[in-house]
Amino acid sequence: MIEKQEFYHGAAVLRAIQDPRCMSMVQFDLGYVVNVKCLFLVKYTTKPSSPWRFTFSADEFGRISSHLNSFAKIVVTLVCGDDGICALDWAEAERLLGMQPGWISVKRSFSGSYAVAGSEGLLKRRIPLKRWPALLFDSEDMNELTEPATSEDDHN
After folding, report:
1. E strand residue ranges, 23-101
2. Which residue among 20, 44, 79, 102 sits deepest, i.e. has the most Cβ atoms within 10 Å of its Cβ?
3. Nearest to 67, CA basis, from 87, 41, 42
């Protein structure tokens, strides 16, 4: 039997390995290591429509934080049902969580980008669908892979 987790992890993994910049990938602790230097984590929800909410437990938060000095980049992939993948770098996720366990909420209107909020803050820019897997491989200015937020992005 194929587990749900395999489908959702598979969506993120497939997009990463299809990128020509992906030279290697191995499973590691909470996620996958790409090209020996980048870690990406996969969180998913089976909820079919926006908004989607992802919880980060104390254990997960501690385990992720313990790997900060081991990798050049840590990316969190939030698989939003069958809608798409919202990718955040760990620094963005930490700000949204207030540097502690909590939740991140993602919402998207039809053909829009993702608006993201957390238990301790709101991301000021929207996340386009094309950000994954580009964020994993690019050393970009964060604004290049995000879009300005609008007033309809408010999370309640």
Report:
1. 25-28, 31-34, 38-45, 52-56, 73-80, 84-89
2. 79
3. 41
User: Does the domain formed by 4-153 have CATH 3.40.1350?
Assistant: yes
In angstroms, rounded to a whole number, what is the distance separating the alpha carbons of residues 63 and 40?
13
- pLDDT averaged over the chain? 87
Report yes or no: 15 and 6 within 8 Å, Cβ to Cβ: no
- At residue 121, φ and ψ (nearest 5 deg) are 175, 180
- For residue 114, report the phi and psi dihedrals to the nearest 5 degrees: -85, 130
From 153, 154, 145, 132, select the one nearest 43 (Cα to Cα).
132
> What is the model's pTM?
0.86
Residue 88: how many CB atoms within 10 A of its CB? 28
Cβ(126)–Cβ(114) under 8 Å? yes
Whether residue 109 contacts residue 50, with contact meaning beta carbons closer than 8 Å, is answered with yes
